[in-house]
Amino acid sequence: MAEAAVITRRPRAGARLILAGAWIAIIAVAAIFAPLIAPHDPLAQDLMLGKLPPFWIKGSEPGYWLGTDSLGRDVLSRLIYAARIALTVALAASLMACIAGSLLGVLAGFFGGWTDRIVSRIVDIWMAFPPVLFSILLVAVIGTGLTSVIFAIAVIDWTRFCRVIRAETMQQRRMDYVDSARVAGFSPLATMIREVLPNVIPAIVVLLSLEMGIAVIVEAILSFVNLSISTDAPTWGGMIAEGRVLIHHAWWVLVFPLIVLFLTVLAFSQFGEGLKERFDPVLR
């Protein structure tokens, strides 16, 4: 029975990784090559072409595959360019949170004592604030813009890395190979860098993938309330905010960015879960 469970789990994890990775790759390619892929300028307005339906609905125009919004801007082109902002925020903010949180987590978990107590108290205080409200407050204080959004997400989400990596490091610290390194004459710092850190990297990679999905959601929320970048630049959250008003007249302005946002967040989540199943020896 155990062997059967392992056999059935591995293909499922592999399929999860492939499907999620494929969608992430599609979004990444669209973001990188947006000027070549997008059929129209995402900021170009033509009120005569406002609220055109998608290509399969009567009344559509050739070249506007997913229709237009109230200002005549191409929905597909705006979705493609919005992927640039979403992935930029997700990658930059997640890396910043990962580096800061993982570093503090490894230090607290490996050295323990007063280092662990100080870091743990800071994390407890930080997590007492509601994350979304905290991010809105930070952006409102430091000002809107791409840099501000990235900084706000990183400042909030480093605690997630810190807690998980601290626990993982404490578990690795009790392993025999750490005692062997100490007997061999390794200094505590060398033991942490050469022995413990490589064994917590899989957990860091999994968390990084999950955090990128969270960062995409937070950026969408901030742009939805007009606290991300300028209102003219296409963002998935901004398109959802506009489409909410037009739901009874041009439903496609709301539905398509919602679908892309949902699939992107789901892809990052499932990619992280697939990596967890692949790396975790207990699940394997």
Unreliable sequence segments: 1-9
| CATH superfamily placement | MetI-like
Mean pLDDT: 85
Q: How many domain modules?
A: 1
| CATH topology value | MetI-like fold
Question: What is the radius of gyration?
Answer: 23 Å
In whole angstroms, how far apart are the ends? 14 Å
Quick tags:
284 residues; mainly alpha; MetI-like fold
Overall description:
The protein is mainly α and 284 residues long. The chain has a single domain (2-37, 68-279), classed as Orthogonal Bundle (MetI-like fold), CATH 1.10.3720. The chain is built from ten helices and no strands. The protein has helices spanning 2-32, 34-37, 75-111, 113-126, 131-142, 146-173, 176-183, 188-224, 236-245, 252-279. α3 runs antiparallel to α8 (188-224). The protein is elongated. The two termini are 14 Å apart. Residues 1-9 have low confidence and may be disordered.
Concise overview:
By secondary structure, this protein is mainly alpha-helical. It has helices at 2-32, 34-37, 75-111, 113-126, 131-142, 146-173, 176-183, 188-224, 236-245, 252-279. The protein starts with a helix and ends in a 5-residue tail after the last helix.
Secondary-structure topology with pairs:
Layout: H1 2-32, H2 34-37, H3 75-111, H4 113-126, H5 131-142, H6 146-173, H7 176-183, H8 188-224, H9 236-245, H10 252-279
